[in-house]
Queue: 4 jobs
Job 1
Amino acid sequence: MEKTNYRLLFSAPVLVAALGYFVDIYDLLLFSIVRISSLRSMGVSDADMLATGEFLIRVQMTGLLVGGLIWGIMGDKRGRLSVLFGSILLYSLANIANGFATTVDQYAVLRFIAGIGLAGELGAGITLVAEILPTRLRGYGTTLVATVGLMGAVLANIIAKNFEWQTAYFIGGGLGLMLLIARVGVFESGVFLKIKEQEVERGNFLQLFRSRERLIKFIGCILIGLPIWYVIGILITFSPEFAAALAIQGTVNSGDAVMFSYIGLAAGDLSSGFISQAVRSRKKVVFGFILITLAVVIFYLYGPISSATGFYAVCFALGFGVGYWALFVTVAAEQFGTNLRSTVATSVPNFIRGTVVPLTLLFKFFRGYVGLVTGALLVGLLTVAIGLLALRWIDETFSRDLNFVEKD
């Protein structure tokens, strides 16, 4: 029986969810990797590169925020598979179209549409995997999905280095369309099918606001992930600018910074997932990884780093520190009942991705007064403090049975 249970980790829904997140990460981070080359081809000057990049990041993340609500609600109303099919189709077509963009305005519209599509992949995949696996394998399954998926950043960097930025978008869209074929044989969550037969309100986002306890948990689920997208959306995305400000010797490009940070993130997710299973706690592990992130952020900004190689090593360490991404989404999925689980698990990671918008604006405000490095530190300290505070608002869910519903 033990052996058979572990084989469930390699069942079709788990593997397809992992591959879906792989393509999702490829497409999500491709802009960060080809930002400079693509914007230069559109006539953006080096002086405007940071500001234009921040604008497009905000547009893409706003799309993720909108998509998180759309796909989350659809996942609870129509099923997890409808989201896995619909979201990948939308972002695949948007990324293919992105390869034909010739102006920043076109770029912005297509990144917004792609962002909406990208929003559905992770939450629906984690929800499906969490519901089909036995309780004691749930953490392993979600860790597997996240670890495999995060390596999409490595492929995106390799493709971007060997092809024009337009071709990189075409390849990402093509991979997504190919994945649709693989999803034909995936089965729906039995937990969802059971609740679908009952007269229970499903996918009502407003239901989260009808209970103070429920609302606090929802906000807490979002905010514990704040340090993750501070690191990715600011420190890693704009790594060339930080390298210049820190007088790093050698060339630092965003593609390699993204790649090394996501290799670190995958290692962190793998580690945090297994540690969580060993200590039988989600919250203790998240707490530890947030503290690791704080230490590495300070070293990134003020440590004795002089070479590009050393800088990339710290990018890896940053990724490892925020490698509680899988736990973060798993915790969100486990906090709420089946009738709201997809809504929460899909909206939470995209709400936290959407915080890149206010974080980059806050970073812009601070650096105008105290400079790039100190401005980044202030934003980082704020995100860590909020993340640690929010951790107190959520439940420990390691052994929770997910076969329950939210009732008013």
Note: The chain has a mean pLDDT of 86.
Job 2
Amino acid sequence: MAGTQHLWLFIVSGLLLNITPGPDSLFIMARSASQGWRAGFVACWGIGSGVFVHVFAAALGLSALLATSAAAFTAVKVIGAAYLVWIGIGMLRQRAGGASPAVVEAGPRVIRYRDIFRQGFLTNALNPKVALFFLAFVPQFIAPDAPSKPLAFIVLGTIFDINGMLWCHSLALFTAFASSRLNVGPSVGLWLNRTMGAAFVALGARLALASR
């Protein structure tokens, strides 16, 4: 299919990789728990769009620059880490519903859908580890005699993204359903949001210290 090989192995491997916890899963869970499944879905779409940045970059050979240039990798890494920390600090500083700190029963501040999409997109697009992952993982499933290797890369990247979106949407629905069933109060939701913020700060620090 379009110069690919071992497609079923690629799909199964991609699904297993997608269910591994990471910044994307945490972001989806945070938005779904605090604002419901619709916000979780918007987060999924932002993340899925960010994946395509890496797919096309790898297909065009731009990801190879990150793999070979220490300066390029460090620049993207620092920007990505700073953005993760910035999101985390924003979640940690959230007050109840944007109102007075004395309003204990208000929930976390509602974030606009377009901002959720943007955050999900940049969280993924600014992570150089994702670019290197595509560069290392996908070529194994491109046939040596593929008529167009960039096209085969894009096809596989699209399949991987769709695979991931199925999992991400399921995670968003499950998180929203669990929050509803457990009757998580506004104050608990606020502290859950702050816990996720602390996790984002930690992930940002980890990315900043990561090597190629």
Note: Residues 22-208 form one domain.
Job 3
Amino acid sequence: MNERVDRYLGEPKPALVKSPRRTLKFLKGAYAAGVPGMMSKPSTDLLVNSGGYAFHYGCPNPEMRTIASWLMTSGEAKPRRIAKLVPALWKRHGQEDLVLVGLILANMSEEDLGESPWMALIHLLGEREPLGALLEIGEEIVRGGHETPDDQWLVAMAEQSALWHQVAVLFLSLRKGSTGNLRGMVTTAPGGGELFERIRNRLLSHED
């Protein structure tokens, strides 16, 4: 346990989640508290409109899980308040914000979210997004016990836009086994960076 995070979070504060603005500000402080060693200035050299992040403190995964646990414990009596934080976190678009979104989507019920975590995620997407972050969120959702979308869902998603097509391929890559009937969807996906092409090649190398 990071002692600074532990001190910062203190006891659960249910009243805090009543105010999205206060909660977002509080969470940013929690990210900073989670950075190992001396307090680091967040990196802001990757812009949101280029598909990157608004900021990146470097808060490690264990500390992010602690922050997510605190948040969900604080709002357990009103889970819809936590669900309503998700769009605000995504809009702010810090690296830690996106990690926190993945943890929330993975650990809340569909009833509390109002839809499946996969649907909730794609409804957040802008015109450009960091595919690596989306893959990590998808992996977290699977770890949370949610099955990947079925073939029909992925095909319909891929038809919506170039980004959604790429993300459909990322979601497919979270399954075990071959691409099945979706080889064509993988082949025709728009070109991406090194990570995306590595995933595409891995999927296509599987024997049907």
Note: DSSP finds twelve helices and no strands in the chain.
Job 4
Amino acid sequence: MKWRIHPEGRPLALGAALAATALAGLGFKRAAQGAALASLAAAYFFRDPERQPPWAQAAVVSPADGEVIVVRQEPEPLWVGGPAWRIGIFMSIFDVHINRAPIAAQVMHIRHQPGEFVPANRADALARNERRAYCLQREDGQRALVIQVAGLVARRTVPLVQPGETVTRGQRLGLIRFGSRVEVFLPAAARPLVAQGHRVRAGETPIAWWA
């Protein structure tokens, strides 16, 4: 699999690598080994593999790598407008943390909401934690919502798009630094294709069918 290090992680990986080189030159072998491991860990965490969405345009792809922890209907009156399918995905520190657009759409709004940093796998994390929401609108006017939720370790969400941009399915939408979760809200007309406990891959795994 071909992948790169995302620009957000390059300073960390490069800085640790340079520190390892300097420490080794000064004779601090163990410290140099620790810095080298830190460089490799940063490169691994910020890996940014290429992904290929499925051919069917009605297939909503996962916005994140990780484990599905929520699939249920609930109201989303703000942007989706009415009953919606909520699909929540928990990302461990070992998952790829690049988040991707689940549908082809225009980015209508991006809203950052300050909050707490309780563990991201808790049921109340979406309501309590710091988060960043992306309102996505299809050509037919229907809307979906993607929410990056910070966690106990993940305390920074990074947008990679701006309001007004048009995104394709699987396009990089943002990233979260260290373990956290991503929530998707889809209109009730969508049909979920995943269940709690399923493992998914951002930009590739169909999580719903929305014709």
Note: The longest helix spans residues 29-45.
